[in-house]
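User: I've been trying to design a sequence by hand for this structure and keep getting stuck. Would you show me what you'd pick, starting by listing the structure so we're on the same page?

Assistant: Good idea, let's start from the same input. This is the structure you sent:
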């Protein structure tokens, strides 16, 4: 409740609480008292990454935020395997827990579910592009700059901030969300996570194939 903006109207309280819960998994990335799953490579899983124990878990689980389905556009034949755990695997794991009797675990898993459903609808959380320059993948665009040589803006963060900059206050985000068109009812009722991932991978491929996208200098591609 401490994160609610001052003087929040009662009609907006539930929406704000939903937003606070849905962004908790990102806030713990910089919060004191939490540790990395794999201190030698913070974005890769460690032995603790497979657990699901509720709020007694004080690991950041960065590797839960994405599923790096690899693809190549330059003829690279050998693709790295999709790491596990990953966002799709976690969503499938957390769903059944919501029907259990452990209230702490249900609250923890629900917070993660709210976050990961959003992550899986950002295409660069679904895939990594492999090529001669990135044999292990481009980390969902985190290794690419939007305008090489003139900018330090990473492609992944560019896509993250399309609807507004990271860190925008809750009221601003709510106003932006209210202006969005209603979701396609057919797509919104599709609860098969593999379909979301496949759509994200295809969207990432399509965007990366666009000639000189996002103002990139000619000769550079995504």
């Amino acid at each position: 409740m401490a994160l609610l903006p001052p003087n929040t109207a009662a009609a907006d309280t539930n929406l704000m609480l939903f937003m606070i819960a849905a962004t908790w998994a990102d806030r713990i990335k910089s919060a004191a008292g939490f540790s990395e799953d794999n201190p030698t490579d913070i974005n890769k899983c460690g032995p603790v990454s497979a657990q699901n124990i509720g709020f007694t878990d004080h690991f950041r689980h960065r590797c839960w935020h994405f599923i790096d389905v690899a693809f190549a556009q330059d003829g690279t034949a050998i693709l790295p395997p999709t790491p596990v755990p990953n966002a799709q695997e976690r969503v499938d794991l957390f769903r059944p827990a919501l029907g259990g009797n452990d209230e702490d675990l249900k609250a923890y898993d629900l917070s993660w579910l709210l976050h990961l459903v959003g992550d899986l609808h950002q295409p660069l959380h679904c895939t990594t592009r492999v090529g001669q320059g990135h044999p292990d993948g481009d980390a969902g665009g985190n290794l690419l700059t939007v305008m090489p040589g003139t900018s330090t803006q990473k492609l992944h963060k560019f896509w993250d901030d399309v609807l507004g900059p990271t860190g925008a206050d809750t009221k601003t985000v709510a106003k932006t969300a209210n202006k969005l068109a209603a979701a396609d009812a057919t797509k919104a009722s599709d609860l098969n996570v593999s379909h979301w991932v496949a759509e994200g991978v295809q969207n990432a491929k399509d965007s990366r194939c666009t000639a000189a996208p996002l103002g990139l200098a000619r000769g550079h591609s995504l």
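That's my pick for every position. To get oriented when you compare it with your attempt: The chain has one domain: 10-206. Residues 10-206 form one domain.
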